[in-house]
Amino acid sequence: MLLPIAHAATESAGGIAALGLDGRALLFQLINFGLLLVLLRAFAYKPVLKVLEARRQRVEESLRTAKEVAKAKTELGRQVQQAVQKAQRQAQTIIAAGQARAEAIMKEAETKAHQAAERIKKQAKAHLSQQVTTMREELRAETLQLVAAAAAQILGERLDTKRDEELVFAAVAAAEQHLKKKS
Q: Is the whole model's pTM more than 0.85, yes or no?
């Protein structure tokens, strides 16, 4: 008869007990769940949310920094390119100026060399002319002596100095005319 008593107890309980649930145990479980929820929220959920929020902010900051770095990189690349172009223009200007200066130096050196050559040429001509004049005078003096010696031998006697000079000058003049006819 036990069986009918247990069966009767379950029939009289009705509602939640009919489902096989104990009301008191369910209440304790709800209180335990609430306490667990409050404890988790206080000690686990809020710190986890704070860590997640901090991480989200760091990621956003990193993305923002990456965008700024990319902009800075682009700007720096543009500035570097401008600087290179400016340096190339300056280099071309310097090269052109150097070439112009080199040409001017070469022309100046050519002019100086030409002037020096002309000066040396004039000096050489003057020196040569002076040597020719000196040699002519020496030749003339030697010729006069030779003519005087030849005249003395031909005539067999020595004439006076005045007559000697007249004969020599006449002989030299005849020799010069003879040379002029040949040339």
A: no
Contact between 140 and 173 under an 8 Å Cβ cutoff? The reply is no
DSSP string, 109-149: HHHHHHHHHHHHHHHHHHHHHHHHHHHHHHHHHHHHHHHHH
Q: How many CB atoms lie within 10 A of CB 53?
A: 10
Nearest to 62 by CA among 74, 70, 51: 70
Nearest-angstrom CA–CA distance, 131 and 139: 12
Tokens of 28: 């304790």
The residue ranges of the chain whose pLDDT is under 70 are 1-14, 151-153, 155-159, 183
Length of the chain: 183
Q: What is the pLDDT of residues 23-69, one digit of tens each?
A: 888 899 999 999 999 998 888 888 888 999 999 999 999 999 999 99
What single DSSP character describes residue 20? T
